[in-house]
Write a structure and sequence with these properties.
Oligomer: homodimer
Helix content of chain A: 55-70%
Largest interface: A-B, 61 and 61 residues
Strand content of chain A: 5-15%
Largest sheet of chain A: 3 strands, antiparallel
Structural class of chain A: mainly alpha
Chain lengths: 158, 158
DNA sequence: TATTGTTATACTCTATAACTATA
DNA sequence: TATAGTTATAGAGTATAACAATA
């Protein structure tokens, strides 16, 4: 005989077993939550995480070829073409023919694009404050360091 | 005047700036590499990370409703239906009508499903050894702990 | 011949809503 | 009316191959 007004408590409680010791599983869950946080913070901008990262990377490295930016972020050429087209349509990115190699295209932010990225620094800062809030200061630095270690240790050849 | 046989070194070298201090960005990159590792390790099985995690979770919690498993893994109902159908077709999962609530369905592993999951423990162990290889033992435990902290601190309401 | 980026196709994951059968 | 799961449709990301222009 269960209480009619509530679910049986253990019906919704799951045993995660070894999943709680699986780096891949925890990375996946953490990453999904990081996306949620991004969408919550960037609600007003219509921006997706991948798009905004592309804008930031172009801003830091103006004049680089589209393929170089794409490869660094593991975005496939076909997808990159469409993503950049959206950013061009939004007025944030400029494409320019490369004189030395006329097959390729170099990217840079428009004035609007740079202004947009600059303006989102505040949003980014708030996101970081929220991210840091569950950690002691040295713990946050530690997780960044360990993630970078994992990334460097598992480098792909491309 | 550049050497003709190589790209200019700095042409491919990008400044990542603050992205190297962004938890969200590092989580994303690390997670993509974790998927790569999974696919490399589970090459022979045709299994995807999400599918295998569902199998593991069902194995740990037989007889739970499909919706409970789905929600725990943030899989949307529509997607879950198709994923479970694939697992049923593969002979790994059994669906059973719930007597108390005939709208719902409970899940369990078939004997083949349980055998499959058990058999992949070796693959999983090898993956973990590879994951641990870049870390000191206490560092690996630390990254698991910190990821769990992040996950708990950013819990969604649902 | 090989490479850069584009186009086209397809498959998965995700999001949404409409539907069914229950409750 | 609300809920559990299904079906259907569409959008985004990804993978692949074919293509045009150029190297």
């Amino acid at each position: 005989m269960n209480l009619p007004l509530r679910d049986t408590p253990d019906e919704d409680t799951l045993d995660f077993g070894d999943l709680n010791a699986s780096l891949g599983f925890l990375l996946r869950v953490a990453q999904l939550q990081a996306f949620d946080s991004f969408y919550a913070a960037f609600d007003a901008t219509q921006m997706k995480p991948g798009e905004f990262t592309v804008l930031r990377l172009i801003g830091l490295n103006p004049g680089r070829r589209q393929g170089v930016i794409a490869k660094a972020l593991r975005i496939k050429p076909a997808h990159m073409t469409k993503l950049i087209q959206r950013m061009v349509d939004a007025g944030y990115v400029e494409r320019e023919a490369t004189p030395e190699d006329r097959r390729s295209v170099t990217l840079s932010l428009t004035r609007d694009g740079q202004r947009f990225v600059d303006h989102q620094q505040t949003t980014l800062k708030n996101l970081e404050i929220k991210d840091r809030s569950g950690f002691a200061p040295e713990e946050f630095d530690q997780i960044l360091t360990l993630l970078k270690r994992y990334i460097a240790g598992n480098k792909r050849d491309d």
